[in-house]
Amino acid sequence: MLVLSATDAREQRTLAERIRLGDPLAEAELVREFSQRIFVMSVSRTRDRGGARDLVQDTLIAVLAALRKGQLQDPDKLAAFVHGTARNLISNRLRREGQRPPTGPLPEEVAGASMSEELESAERVRLVQESLSHLALQDRQILWMTLVEGRKPGEIAAALALSSDVVRTRKARAARKVADYLKKKMSRTQANLPHR
Length: 196
What we know:
Blueprint: H1 6-20, H2 24-46, H3 49-68, H4 78-96, H5 108-111, H6 115-133, H7 137-147, H8 153-160, H9 164-192
């Protein structure tokens, strides 16, 4: 179990509150912060990388749903809440499948948790967040409601007091800006890599 400093507890409380208030960047921050930890915990208990990825998604969905509804009793203990949710979902899956957690050392490829893959994934997440920060707040909301919440333009229009045509136009323009930004950043990153 993690022991947190007062600063860490304050940051967790702030993050939980931002998610409760509907801040999509806070939700992305939670995903970035906890995905790797949940993945390593899941792989170590199940020895199944594919299943572990599913457990990461299931855990994050359950945690985000609870935070959005304000169901976390002690926001200072967000990390413990995420850890406990992951532990319960892993145990439920093992029980459902009639398995026991494997014993013995982790295989080397799991112990390393494919750090290069995880670092690349973290870099992609960072770049996406960076690109989103250059958009107007309403454009970020439109992208979030479309891509994450799966809402239709009419629903978004009603929620944001806009017309459906405006939502479609702003969504297309925002998606294009994000794609252009990422393309530019990725080409710079590739150009700076050493050639073999």
